[in-house]
Amino acid sequence: MANKVPSDIEIARAAKAQPIEKIAAKLGIPEPSLFRYGPTKAKLSFDYINQLKSKPDGKLILVTAITPTPAGEGKTTTTVGLGDGLNRIGKKTVICLREPSVGPCFGVKGGAAGGGYAQVIPMEDINLHFTGDFHAIGAANNLLAALIDNHIYWGNELQIDTRRITWRRVLDMNDRALRSITSSLGGVANGYPREDGFDITVASEVMAIFCLATDLTDLTRRLGNIIVGYTRDRKPIHARDLKAEGPMTVLLRDALMPNLVQTLEGNPAFIHGGPFANIAHGCNSVIATRTGLKLGDYVVTEAGFGADLGAEKFFDIKCRKAGLKPAVAVIVATIRALKMHGGVAKEDLNKENVEALKKGIANLARHVENVKSFGVPPLVAINRFVADTDAELNALRQACAELGTEAIECTHWSHGGAGTEALAKKVVEIAEGGSAAFKTLYPDEMPLWDKLRTIAQSLYGAQGIIADKKIRDQFAEFQKAGYGNYPICVAKTQYSFSTDPNLKGAPSNHVVPVREIRLSAGAEFLVAVCGEIMTMPGLPKVPAANSIFVNPDGQVEGLF
């Protein structure tokens, strides 16, 4: 009988974690600069971070992926594996990841701490409450919501139109029952009843602000700029009008310090912030990334979902706002996922099918060309599975060569950093070669409507964008109001270049419908909601929560 392959949580539990002080010492961080959360987690003090400003930056490496499928791609696993691989070849490397949301952990997606022998630990803590950052973000968001309703209750001096309140409450859990609610029921003492609703915490503008803020002062400024609603004559009401930015910053003060943990191989990783990529901008915090660049030769970070969402927002929002210049973009692909894009059913993915693979490579090809359009050299990482055949691998390598890039096999899931050494060496070769000439997709001064159309046509292969007159008028109003220099954050399905999640491969000449446009004045971007997209997910018929429990030894079981 073949040996049972241990689960991710079993591998993580079997690892002997080093004290967090030893991980910090690898980066030259002194112990007094750590705020410990137990023996294997710590936050890094702002006093120490501020001392790093004069240090030169290391090289920034982005890990992105093809359009995700149920077959799996392994982007986070590859990010961790590449970080371990770079450290193995002598490059002092820091990994920067997003914090997982509890909702997906108990829903369908599972955790986001890597997998196999390419994980960050402590896996259970990271996938659950971790250091409490998401609770702080939720509390800050909901404090603002409470201040709005309290202001209305005590006379509404600002003349807020209760029909035009745009600020919603949040919860870090998938709960469709809370998408649309009526609040303040129960009589005069409970306020004025109105329509309200909840988003998941990672969709909150506070999360986006948290991840884009450069320090506490910038955080306070951005929080004050949040628009919570409008008066009857359409005058915007800001959080600062409610004197909310101060207490919100107090709730977020400790959370804003980046979290330091380690990989299974004892390499440093910052895990901080976590906006969804199909709803928000999908990148870890600017503070964590900038700190990593000061401390390491290399920083390996990821952006959510496929390159059309994650990489585009990383480049056009995070890099634009933070002045970052990535040196290489690694695009993660699997033979299985490419065959699914080529029309193969999930149950047939273990059978060799070179023709379907070649058809599915169209999806990878578009992502490669998209990355090139930002002036960043792409490199393909093949996350290899046991069922992948030599014929399929050769076909993929040949196709990548024709695209002007290289495809490198990686076995980090089973071999850790040793399985990514070849990828790490190629990353260093490209990064040290200095061929990157990073540029954003569009200039700040381009009109908002044209920015969205440029994204849709240039990256999604769309014919154009459409919207009702009401939405087009909103674009014009935001342009006129002085927000025209903001970037666009597209909220759409992650499963297709189009807004139809069932349209695989590389569809062209489709039309992207714009259902809603939202101003995030604190985060300093506009969210264009395209197609059917939920800011509060629901649980599936059989949620992952059904299999998660604490065993008799007090250990968590069932996380993945």
> What is the CATH domain class of the largest domain?
Alpha Beta
The backbone outline, from C-alpha atoms, is globular
- Name the helicity range: 25-40%
Extract low-pLDDT stretches: none
Number of strands: 25
Distance between the termini: 24 Å
Q: Mean pLDDT score, rounded?
A: 94
Any idea of the CATH topology of the largest domain?
Rossmann fold
Q: How many helical stretches?
A: 19
How many domains is the backbone divided into? Answer: 3
Relative strand content: 15-25%
CATH superfamily label of the largest domain: P-loop containing nucleotide triphosphate hydrolases
How would a textbook summarize the main sheet?
Answer: 12 strands, mixed
Cα-atom radius of gyration: 23 Å
The CATH architecture of the largest domain is 3-Layer(aba) Sandwich
State the secondary-structure class: alpha/beta
How does this model look, in words?
It is a single chain. The chain has 3 domains: 24-131 and 255-433, 3-Layer(aba) Sandwich (Rossmann fold), CATH 3.40.50.300; 133-252, Domain 2, N(10)-formyltetrahydrofolate synthetase (2-Layer Sandwich), CATH 3.30.1510; 448-530, Formyltetrahydrofolate synthetase, domain 3. The chain has 19 helices and 25 strands. The strands form 6 sheets. Strands 1, 2, 3, 4, 5, 6, 14, 15, 16, 17, 18 and 19 form a 12-stranded mixed sheet that branches. A 4-stranded mixed sheet has the order 20-22-23-21. The longest helix has 21 residues, at 133-153. The two termini are 24 Å apart.
